[in-house]
Predict the structure.
Amino acid sequence: MTQLHLPFKFLEQAAGPNVREPWLLVLMHGVGSNEQDLFGLARLMPPQFHVLSLRAPYVLSPDAYAWFEFEVLPDGERRINEEQERESRFLVGEMVASASQQLGVPPERVVVGGFSQGGIMALSLLLTQPAKVRAAMVWHGRLLQQTAAHIAAPEAFEGKALWVSHGSADNVIPPSAAEASRELARGLPLALSGADFPGGHEIRPAELQGALAWLQSLGSAAGAS
């Protein structure tokens, strides 16, 4: 396996040994977690995917990290650290491009995905740097106002895909956040998939199965091994 040199700490699982044209799946955890979290799903991923699970750069406490810090205001609004978000988004974009190059996987076979704050990062990357990825998989995320102002031109999304799923009873990031992301996506020439699933702020089995089927369909549609 290629020895990767990247700006984040990460865990990785190589694509299946008989895969001739591997894909790259980059996973990003939620706030207060770490790279071990979503890496537990790597064994379930379609075999054509080389899986990287990243550790966010900002330390909250031992083994707890964030892509950016935020505070909840008395009215419930979230105020994010915009400088940290910008820095993380830049670094993730650089890392995805570097991993893609080092592994010999072209951008049209690269998917970024994440849960909660990691999903926010995946969505932001697709919207602002679409040339670096084929698709984004967003579990229980939301669209940031700060990135909405930097969305690429519509033609940059031709051939791209987006999965947005959420918990119908999510009390951390409300389901309306997912609908706002979908509404934006419907105005772009990309393929939108996903749904709301029963449950709260967690990835339930039916949601995971839907996302895995979507990932498989991306590879199959492109004729991947």
